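step=encode ok
step=design start
structure_in=
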């Protein structure tokens, strides 16, 4: 078991009270996979190819439609005969990032547990990845790893493994460690980053979001340190705009470098806490730290003078949306010192629905029919439910005096059309859903 689960938490009170069923009245009250991929057959070397296509927007940003991900590649190259891959892709020829992933060597690990994931060293040509999606208000992403061991049942980012011709169920079983992060990021910032964003008419710097498709402080970070290497590189610069989202209190390890970044650039940190119930947390987010550990992390970061808020995304219909539950998360966040709070309703991409809907049928059978009606053909909950949830979050923010996140305040002041999303009211669009898996 990862040490992240066993370390004691600093004393921090969590006030709990009895909560009744969701006010939306759309769900009843909440009641109290496939094995690793087989070895690739004769993975071919990629002659003369230095890196991957990971600097393209599709790697870290949600695709506009289902047809933009998980498409079989039929070009010449190594062939993966993988039992977990759908039959139509079982003999697909691999190109690009899929080819590199198939040829990636195992990464050494000190972990001995039989439940540990497989780690691989992934050669990439870029760490700073452009995000051209209009659904999110930032220009660049940094994801130090591909895949995430926290294994959150609802995680939207499972689709990113499909770019490597892997099934979404392997998102937490096969973790790819990006090589040469620091030197690559140094080059990226020097050559690609803009201190006068085109989207803002030159009024602000580009924003870099860290952890949009994988948690930067998952257990792999203890061994490989890719996230810290990236932060150390960013700390050498000034005038940047950076945010980090994570479910792990491991981030407090890097308080020293985070303080250096904050002294010279705009930095905001989001800690995700979807519920205060430890049992439910373990069910939904099997290998993520407990809620009390995350709250303790918020407190420690604030005491270090850093700008920190809490994300309660995703709000999961019928499971984490009961009367008073979201309010309790907000109250605990405020007590820990959080400066902002936001939440967005569950968003399920096809690869995520494939994992989450069977989970609901097994663990919450009374909710299964409603989930099938809502999510089987559409990634979003009904508009009326999302509207009520947005209004509820707005009331919570007003009650506890939560402010906007620093980089959102900065972008709002520029009057930039692209960045006019109402994050104060936790607009339940693809953008808020996109940031729910930190």
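sequence_out=
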């Amino acid at each position: 078991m990862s040490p992240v689960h066993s370390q004691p938490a600093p004393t921090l009170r969590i006030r709990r009270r009895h909560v009744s069923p969701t006010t939306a009245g759309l769900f009843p009250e909440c009641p109290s996979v496939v094995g690793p991929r087989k070895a690739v057959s004769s993975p071919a070397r990629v002659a003369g190819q230095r890196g991957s296509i990971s600097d393209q927007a599709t790697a870290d940003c949600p695709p506009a439609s289902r047809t933009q991900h998980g498409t079989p590649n039929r070009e010449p190259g190594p062939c993966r005969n993988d039992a977990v891959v759908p039959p139509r892709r079982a003999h697909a020829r691999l190109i690009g990032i899929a080819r590199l992933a198939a040829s990636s060597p195992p990464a050494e690990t000190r972990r001995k547990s039989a439940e540990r994931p497989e780690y691989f060293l992934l050669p990439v040509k870029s760490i700073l990845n452009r995000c051209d999606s209009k659904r999110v208000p930032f220009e660049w992403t940094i994801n130090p790893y591909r895949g995430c061991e926290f294994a959150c049942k609802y995680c939207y980012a499972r689709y990113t493994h499909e770019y490597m011709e892997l099934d979404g169920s392997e998102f937490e079983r096969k973790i790819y460690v990006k090589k040469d992060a620091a030197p690559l990021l140094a080059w990226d910032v020097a050559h690609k980053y803009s201190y006068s964003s085109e989207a803002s008419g030159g009024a602000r710097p580009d924003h870099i979001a860290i952890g949009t498709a994988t948690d930067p402080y998952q257990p792999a970070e203890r061994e490989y340190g890719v996230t810290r290497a990236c932060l150390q590189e960013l700390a050498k610069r000034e005038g940047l705009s950076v945010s980090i989202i994570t479910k792990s209190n491991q981030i407090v390890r890097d308080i020293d470098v985070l303080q250096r970044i904050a002294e010279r650039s705009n930095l905001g940190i989001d800690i995700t806490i979807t519920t205060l119930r430890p049992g439910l947390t373990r069910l939904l987010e099997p290998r993520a730290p407990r809620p009390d550990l995350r709250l303790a992390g918020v407190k420690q970061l604030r005491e270090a003078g850093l700008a920190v808020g809490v994300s309660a995304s995703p709000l999961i219909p019928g499971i984490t949306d009961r009367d008073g539950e979201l309010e309790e998360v907000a109250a605990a966040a405020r007590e820990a010192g959080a400066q902002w709070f936001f939440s967005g309703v569950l968003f399920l991409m096809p690869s995520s629905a494939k994992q989450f809907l069977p989970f609901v049928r097994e663990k919450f059978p009374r909710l299964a029919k409603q989930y099938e009606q809502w999510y089987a053909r559409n990634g979003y909950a009904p508009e009326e439910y999302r509207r009520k949830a947005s209004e509820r979050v707005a009331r919570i923010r007003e009650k506890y005096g939560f402010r906007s996140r620093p980089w959102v305040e900065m972008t709002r002041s520029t009057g930039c059309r692209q960045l006019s999303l109402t994050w104060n009211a936790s607009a339940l669009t693809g953008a808020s859903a996109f940031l729910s898996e930190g």
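step=design ok
step=annotate ok -> Residues 77-434 form a domain with the TIM Barrel fold (CATH 3.20.20.70).
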